[in-house]
Amino acid sequence: MLQQFPEAEWDEAAGAIIAPLGQALAVAEWLLGQGVDYCSNVTGVDYLEREVKEKVTGEDGKMETVTRTIPSRMDVVYHLYSMQKQTGPLVLKQRTNREQPQVQSLTPVWRSCELQEREVYDLFGVDFTGHPDQRRILMWDEFEGHPMRKDYTEPFDYEWEPTPHNEILDKHHRGKVIV
């Protein structure tokens, strides 16, 4: 696999192939040709910018702690199987930025991606180029934002919620609604 796509990366910790930017559809088509014929799951993962500390050996041979910054990103993760060969899962990732997250839709290769990519679009805000029907699937049309993003802040009240219930009605009855 990595010979076919030399820019692809292997994520040892996740046991996943990271598709090169803009080549995920080609990777998916190649995998389909190898018998990977089913996508069982598609999900999004949101990573905020963070600092990590690592111990390294300096030039003088002494251990020192260095801090490095890992930039923010979003991953779209696909769990793939070969039903014919009874193998899997093979994990395939597409990596993008958080500011304007955009990846290729793999729905043309695996039809089972269609609704799950819509869910990732709705909840994380990832734009899937080439998706046949990209629109919200869980949240109502007027809903603003993408509630699974780590920087999402829940509004005090959902004035656009079609049928307010439970906590929202309780807040309203206690006079906590902001006008």
Largest sheet: number of strands, sense, barrel closure: 5 strands, mixed
- Spatial arrangement of strands, main beta sheet: 1-2-7-6-3
Strand content: 25-35%
Order of helices and strands: EEHEEEEEEHEH
C-alpha geometry: flat
Specify the number of helices.
3
Give the N-terminus to C-terminus distance in angstroms.
57 Å
Approximate helicity band? 10-25%
Q: Under the CATH scheme, which class of the domain at 9-46 and 74-132?
A: Alpha Beta
According to CATH, the fold-level topology of the domain at 9-46 and 74-132 is Beta Polymerase, domain 2
The low-confidence runs, each spanning 5 or more residues with pLDDT under 50, are none
- Based on secondary structure, the structural category is alpha/beta
The overall average pLDDT, rounded, is 89
Query: CATH homologous superfamily of the domain at 9-46 and 74-132, by name?
Result: NADH:ubiquinone oxidoreductase Nqo5 subunit
Radius of gyration computed on alpha carbons: 21 Å
